Amino acid sequence: MQPINLKIVRLAYWLIRLRWYAIIGIVIAYVIAKHILHFSIWELPIYFIVIFLIILNVTSFSFLKFLQKSHLRKSLKIVNRIINFQISTDLIVLTVLLHYSGGVENPFIIYYIFHMIIGSIILTTKESFIQTSFALILVGAMTFLEYFGIIQHYPLEGFIITNMFNNLTYLLCTGCIFISTSYFVVYITRTIIKESNKHEIAYLQANLKLKQKDKIKNEYVMRITHDIKGHITAIQSCINVLNQKLTGPLNPQQEEFVNRAHNRIIILNQFISDLLSITQRRLQQKQERKYFNIANSLEAILKIVEHSAQEKNISIMKNIDPSVNNIYGEQSSIEEVLSNLILNAVKYSPPDKNITVLATDKQDKVLVEVIDNGIGIPEEELNLVFNEFYRASNVRNQIKDGTGLGLAISKQIVENHGGSIWVDSKLNMGSTFSLLLKKDK
Length: 441
What we know:
The protein is α+β, with helices and mostly antiparallel strands.
C-alpha cells in the first residue's frame, strides 16, 4: 500500500477551496455586470457553468475523502491526476465563460495567468508547461473561431466600444504578449519553487546533521558524567566514613572541614544525577507509556513530602477533583515532575507557611497547580526559570544548594507528553506552578 502524500492532498483541497471562491466571484461579477453596470450578458451559460463547478467541486472533494480512507494503491498518482483534471477543466470552463462574455475583449482573460501560476505551484515543471500550452491552445482556438465567424461572438455591450475581436493587428499583438507572458510566468514560478525546494532540502539536511552532532555530544556528556559519578560516589563513601567517625574521633577543626566536604559532595552528586537524567532523556527515543491514576500518584507523593514539610512546620493542603483519575503517559516521569514541583515549594517556602496542591478536571486534560507563599521569583526572570542550569537571583542569594536542572527536566518531560508547564509568581509573595497534561494519547 502506498500512503497518500499529505502535501499533495493539502494542495488538492486548496484547489477545491479556491474553486469555491471562484464560484462566488463569478456570481458577484455577474450581478455587478448585469444589474449594476447593465452590460449585455447571456445568462443561461453562466447558470450552467456555476452548477457544473459546484458539481465538480463536490465530486472532487468526495473522491479525495474516499481515497484517504481507502488508502488505495498508487493513490498518489490518482490524486495528481485529479489535480491535473481539475486544472484542465477549470481552463475549459474559463474559456467557455469568456466566450459568452466578450471573448478576448473580456478583461478577465488575465485569469489564465492565475491558473498557470497555480499549476506551476502544484504540478511538476513538465505538467506546468503542458497545462500552459493547453490554456494557450484554448485561447487561440476561441480567438480563431470567433475571428473567422465559425462560432458566434458575444460582445460585452456597454463596455467595449469597438469590435476588438475582429481587429487582426490587435489580436496578433495581444496574442504574442499573452503567450510570452504566460510561459515567462510559469518559468519564473517554477524557478522560485525549485530554489525554495533546494533551500528546504538544505535546511532539512543541516537540521539532521545538527541532531546527529547533538546526539554525539549528549552521548559524550553522558559517558563522562557517568564516569565522574562513579568517582564522586567513591569519594562520598570515604567522607561518610570520616563523618560517622568510624576511623576515630575528629578534632573540631577536622570535623568542620569533613562536614563541609560531606555537604558539598551531596550537592555535587545531586547535580551529576540531574545532568545524567536530562541527557538520558534527550537520547531516549521510546518511553513506556500507559494509563495510570494521577490522583493516586499525587496522594503518594504528598505522603513522601510530608516529612520534609513537617520539619519546617509547613502545612500542605490538597484539593483533588473526584473526576481526576487516569491519564496516559510514563508514570515515573510524570511523578518525577510532580514530586519536583512540590519539593521545590517546600524548599523555597519559609517556615510556618502553607502550600496548596490542586488537581482540576479540564475535559480532555488535567490541570495540576502547586501554590506556595514562598520567596517568589523576580518578574523579569520568569521566562528563564525553565532554562537549564538557571537559578533565580534571589534563590542563589538565599539558598546555596541547587543544580538549576530540576525545572528544565520537568519541562522536557511535560512537553514530551504533549502538555505544558508555566509559572506565575510575585517576589516575596509566592509562586504558582501549573501543569497541564493530556488524558489520552
